[in-house]
User: Fold ATP-dependent Clp protease adapter protein ClpS from Ruegeria sp. PrR005.
Amino acid sequence: MTAKPHMMSDKDDQDNDASVLLQTRPKTKRPPLYKVLLLNDDYTPMEFVVHVLERFFGMNHAQAFEIMLTVHKKGVAVVGVFSHEVAETKVGQVMDFARRHQHPLQCTMEKED
Ligand code: TYC
Assistant:
């Protein structure tokens, strides 16, 4: 009596073979977050910056004024933390709005630790 040859399918291999590494813990890795930073300069009007913070970062006037003053005094401040896609969109919106109004306001993003 001879064994019947059997063509192993990919499915058989996955189900039965030790070549599949079992996942011991569920994957809970979250996507990285990005800080959006606003930079100070000597020319952009304070009220324009306040308006940007209200318009693109959903701040009320008092919050926006406070953050604007922080940037003015310290040179830079984090104005929000977002996914990569949302952070890129915010930076683009701010840079485009500043350019259209001919202000040198700079907005950047950096990966959070
Ligand atoms: N320093 C600017 C001024 O005195 C105001 C300013 C604040 C500019 C924040 C940019 O991100 C900024 N008019």
In short: The mean pLDDT is 86.
